[in-house]
């Protein structure tokens, strides 16, 4: 337990029904709580990429990856530590418009490079009359956390939705799955 | 096959035929009627053994597979039919048994509506199957069956569930074509053995003073019996077996030193602790084998051969991990293995065996007390059959005694629920084994507890005249649990005494020749009568209520901590 740290587990799989269930079961069986779990297309048609973040130690990461690799339908699973990986998140922040003055917004956006999403089919910031704005921030998990904390502190945060870690692998899919595809 | 229209159910039967299947174990129900209708029409193509419960069907399929090496097949209807298979599926998963289970499912447009007899069997079986798949159109049936057999039988074998919605069974197809599945990009059935690792492994063995081979069921699954024997003989290396590995090597082979584990032989357990190099093949370091893991084989440099990559380093990290087929790996190692004089090492085995004989075996096989022991019965059967029978067991004390005192001349001759420890496994598994290999003598050892979990399968024996010899070792207790209560819970026999029926009357009701033995002098003649009587036979032996299985390494203890009797 004391050697627990954040590990990113990736898996390239066939895009078939049931594989998500089996991958998730590997964690459930050992009562490992999942911090984030993302499945999406890979660059190769018909192959999905799982990106799962868990707090575990390395021996557990190894066992989990072995068990995931054992699933029929999984082409290749690996584990990484977050360091030295291009691991990013995307988050959408719903922010109270009423109390967000222009200078405050400038301050925040200088400190946390972000993007203001245009709402209502291209309406401007001031043209949004729903009482909120939507900000988009991408970056490391810690950067998202920092913006969240800042907005919360200032009483601006209404809602937050984040993608979980998305990773750009150093190797190409083809390299990762050399001899498999 | 031509242009004639066939139903999905017929396509399913023809697909099974194409995989060489001629026997199914199963139980009908509402949803699966179309398949049973096809079985009726095509009775010449497929034999269906009606068991008395779906659990009986899957255990029979497991016994069939374990005895013959062929994939066993069972079928069940949707809902309760399918859920009744679960225990057997989990058993087959943990014991690497190739079975294909076909379950019917409600029509595709009714999925998820809590339709009558709907159960989400894909979700339920996912953690305990090697693969599962729901077929919702007739056209998918043949390719799904092809994949099922490929996956169940190759690599590390295991159970596969194919769930077929009712509409797929009744839909009509234009003709039938079948193509066997030979590979899948998302599954490696035959990893290439790393030759460098093999060389390093042989080097380690050649330099070893006290090497030990510990083999598991992987030897049988791979068909590596000959390669194992040759490596051991050429290298002059002692061999020990796990429970599931037993019979892969003849019990009387001079290099065979016995069974490892909780109730294993003293010699191989002690030798595990003394060995300087251990070659573990086709075994998975079960807790029942290792005892306390931190104290296990501390002096040994470890080589682990397994075809399942997830087993390498799962429990113990080996110095040399060899991913691949046991037969290939052992055959390659044999080429460069060198014989060394290991007289002192083999003498250790003999010394330890002498201790076990004095402390345990002599008391089990030549008891001075009045009651017959389980060991005497098993030894008696082993002598009378010359070790040629297929021994099937249920789970508990009799199972461990059967593993300890049976003798095996041929491979695949012990069929027992190892990993899951499934009570009720024995009787249906014995039926499956006898149906697979009708010319072999099949002897089931079971207890009074386990027998009653699937006792209804006596009806299957009656209907199909299955010539299984049933040996009931009756102590009127759930004996193994009682043993733990005796040893570790100060004899508080909570819910372990059994009030039993008159088993002789039950055997009689099923028209089975039967006999009860209570006195030692009646045992040998009864065994003789059982074996010489054609067909099934029911032999009940009353054994002591409070006998224990020794030696024993208590759960969680190190292999060194062997108990020889109650007091130690």
Q: What does the model show?
A:
The complex is a heterodimer of chains A (181) and B (568). Chain A has helices at 19-29, 58-70, 102-111, 141-153, 173-176, and strands spanning 5-14, 34-41, 47-56, 74-81, 86-96, 115-117, 132-139, 157-162, 166-168. Chain A is of the alpha+beta class and 181 residues long. Chain A folds into 2 domains: 5-82 and 171-176, Alpha-Beta Plaits (2-Layer Sandwich); 87-162, ACT-like. Chain A, domain 2 (Alpha-Beta Plaits, 2-Layer Sandwich), CATH 3.30.70.1150. In chain A, the strands form 2 sheets. In chain A, strands 5, 6, 7, 8 and 9 form a 5-stranded antiparallel sheet that branches. Chain A has a 4-stranded antiparallel sheet with strand order 2-3-1-4, with helices on one face. In chain A, a hairpin with a 5-residue loop joins β2 (34-41) and β3. Chain A is elongated and about 55 Å long. Chain B has 3 domains: 5-174, Thiamin diphosphate (ThDP)-binding fold, Pyr/PP domains (Rossmann fold, 3-Layer(aba) Sandwich); 195-348, TPP-binding domain (Rossmann fold); 372-542, Rossmann fold. In chain B, 39% of the residues lie in helices and 17% in strands. Chain B is built from 23 helices and 20 strands. In chain B, the strands form 4 sheets. A 6-stranded parallel sheet of chain B has the order 3-2-4-5-7-6, with helices on both faces. In chain B, strands 11-10-9-12-13-14 form a 6-stranded parallel sheet, with helices on both faces. A 6-stranded parallel sheet of chain B has the order 16-15-17-18-20-19, with helices on both faces. The relative contact order of chain B is 0.11. The A-B interface holds A 13-14, 17-18, 21-22, 25, 29, 62-63, 66-67, 69-70, 72-75, 180-181 and B 122-123, 126-127, 130-134, 151, 184-187, 308-310, 312-314.
């Amino acid at each position: 337990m004391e050697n627990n740290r954040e590990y990113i587990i990736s898996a390239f799989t066939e895009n078939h029904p049931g594989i998500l269930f089996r991958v998730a079961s590997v964690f459930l069986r050992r009562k490992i709580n999942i911090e984030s779990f993302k499945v999406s297309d890979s660059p190769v048609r018909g192959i999905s990429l799982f990106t799962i973040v868990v707090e575990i130690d390395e021996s557990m990461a190894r066992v989990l990856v072995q068990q995931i690799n054992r699933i029929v339908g999984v082409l290749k699973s690996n584990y990484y530590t977050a360091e030295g990986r291009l691991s990013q998140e995307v988050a959408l922040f719903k922010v109270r418009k009423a109390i967000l003055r222009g200078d405050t917004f400038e301050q925040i956006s200088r400190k946390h490079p972000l993007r203001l999403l245009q709402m209502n089919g291209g309406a401007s910031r001031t043209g949004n009359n729903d009482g909120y704005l939507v900000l988009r921030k991408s970056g490391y998990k810690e950067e998202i956390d920092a913006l969240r904390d800042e907005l919360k502190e200032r009483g601006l945060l209404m809602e937050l939705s984040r993608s979980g870690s998305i990773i750009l692998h150093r190797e190409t899919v083809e390299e990762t799955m050399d001899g498999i595809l | 096959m031509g242009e004639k229209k066939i139903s999905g159910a017929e396509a399913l039967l023809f697909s099974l035929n194409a995989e060489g299947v001629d026997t199914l174990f199963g139980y009908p129900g509402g949803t699966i009627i179309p398949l049973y209708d096809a079985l009726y029409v095509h009775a010449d193509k497929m034999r269906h053994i009606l068991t008395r419960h779906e659990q009986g069907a899957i255990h029979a399929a497991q016994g069939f597979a374990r005895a013959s090496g062929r994939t066993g097949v069972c079928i069940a209807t949707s809902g309760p039919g399918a859920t009744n298979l679960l225990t057997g599926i989990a058993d087959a998963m943990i014991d690497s048994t190739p079975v294909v289970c076909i379950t019917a499912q409600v029509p595709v447009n009714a999925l998820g509506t809590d339709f009558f007899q709907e159960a989400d069997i894909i979700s339920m079986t996912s953690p305990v199957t090697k693969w599962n798949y729901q077929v919702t159109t007739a056209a998918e049936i043949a390719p799904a069956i092809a994949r099922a057999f490929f996956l169940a039988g190759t690599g590390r074998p295991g159970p596969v569930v194919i769930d077929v919605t009712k509409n797929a069974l009744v839909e009509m197809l234009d003709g039938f074509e079948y193509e066997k599945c030979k590979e899948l990009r998302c599954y490696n059935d035959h990893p290439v053995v790393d030759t460098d690792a093999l060389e390093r492994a042989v080097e380690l063995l050649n330099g070893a003073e006290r090497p030990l081979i510990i083999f598991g069921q992987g030897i049988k699954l791979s068909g590596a019996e000959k390669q194992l024997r040759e490596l051991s003989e050429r290298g002059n290396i002692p061999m020990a077996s796990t429970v599931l590995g037993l019979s892969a090597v003849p019990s009387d082979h001079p290099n065979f030193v016995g069974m490892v584990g909780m109730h294993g032989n003293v010699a191989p357990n002690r030798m595990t602790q003394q060995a300087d190099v251990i070659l573990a093949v086709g075994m998975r370091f079960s807790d029942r084998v290792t005892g306390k893991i931190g104290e296990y084989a501390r002096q040994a440099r470890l080589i682990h051969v397994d075809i399942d990559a997830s087993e390498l380093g799962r429990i113990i990290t080996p110095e040399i991990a060899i991913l691949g087929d046991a037969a290939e790996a052992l055959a390659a190692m044999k080429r460069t293995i060198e014989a060394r004089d290991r007289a002192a090492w083999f003498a250790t085995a003999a010394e330890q065996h002498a201790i076990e004989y004095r402390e345990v075996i002599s008391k089990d096989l030549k008891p001075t007390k009045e009651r017959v022991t389980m060991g005497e019965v098993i030894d008696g059967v082993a002598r009378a059959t010359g070790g040629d029978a297929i021994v099937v067991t249920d789970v508990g004390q009799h199972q461990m005694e059967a593993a300890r005192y049976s003798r095996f001349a041929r491979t695949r001759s012990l069929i027992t629920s190892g990993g899951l420890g499934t009570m009720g496994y024995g009787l249906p598994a014995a039926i499956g084994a006898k149906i697979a290999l009708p010319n072999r003598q099949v002897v089931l050892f079971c207890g009074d507890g386990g027998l009653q979990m699937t006792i209804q399968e006596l009806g299957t024996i009656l209907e199909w005249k299955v010539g299984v010899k049933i040996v009931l070792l009756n102590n009127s207790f759930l004996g193994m649990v009682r043993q733990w209560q005796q040893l570790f819970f100060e004899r508080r026999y909570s819910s372990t005494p059994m009030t039993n029926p008159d088993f002789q009357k039950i055997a009689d009701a099923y028209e089975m020749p039967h006999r009860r033995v209570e006195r030692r002098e009646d045992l040998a003649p009864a065994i003789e009568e059982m074996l010489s009587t054609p067909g099934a036979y029911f032999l009940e032996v009353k054994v002591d209520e409070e006998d224990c299985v020794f030696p024993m390494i208590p759960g969680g203890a190190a292999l060194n901590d062997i108990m020889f009797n109650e007091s130690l």
